[in-house]
Amino acid sequence: MCGAGPYWGTLQLLWLLLGSMFLHHTPEPVRPCWSFRTCAHAMRDIQSFHQDTHSWGDIGCSFMVGSVGYLCENQGWPWVSAHTEDCSTKGFSAGIIWDFSSTLLDPDTLALVQDELQPCAVHSGCAQPDFTLPHTKL
């Protein structure tokens, strides 16, 4: 839907129930994406960077979150992604499409992760009900 390319390689299944969902942010774009067009453009750029620079199969996060309420599935629930060195098989990941290292995360964006994505992980049987939400930089 956003015009991203295909996954490179073979997907690897995760052992579910997982105990964490890592919350990342992207260094680019510096500002939040406030339209589908700008979020889709950022997704394509992030995918190119992760595939071409890191040789990952796709975007490193299981899901990406745009500032206008867009929640995009990358690998999704049952698959290992490349989000967190040595922890990619211990939790899912949600990447926020903008750099919030020097500012507070938009409350609506965080609410999308906490109120929609986290409960979905639990209700679908993929995550433990008491799983944690650590933060890292992508």
How many domains make up the coordinates? 1
SSE topology string? EHEEEHE
* CATH fold-level assignment: Lysozyme-like
In whole angstroms, how far apart are the ends?
A: 23 Å
Poorly predicted ranges (pLDDT <50, ≥5 residues)? Answer: none
Structure annotation, total helices: 2
Structural class: alpha/beta
- Would you identify the CATH architecture? 3-Layer(aba) Sandwich
CATH level-four homologous superfamily name = Peptidoglycan recognition protein-like
Helix content: 25-40%
Q: What fraction of the residues are assigned to beta strands by DSSP?
A: 15-25%
How would you characterize this protein structure?
This protein is α/β, with parallel strands linked by helices and 138 residues long. It has a single domain, classed as Peptidoglycan recognition protein-like (Lysozyme-like, 3-Layer(aba) Sandwich), CATH 3.40.80.10. It contains two helices and five strands, in the order βαβββαβ. The chain has a five-stranded mixed beta sheet, covered by helices on one side. The two termini are 23 Å apart.
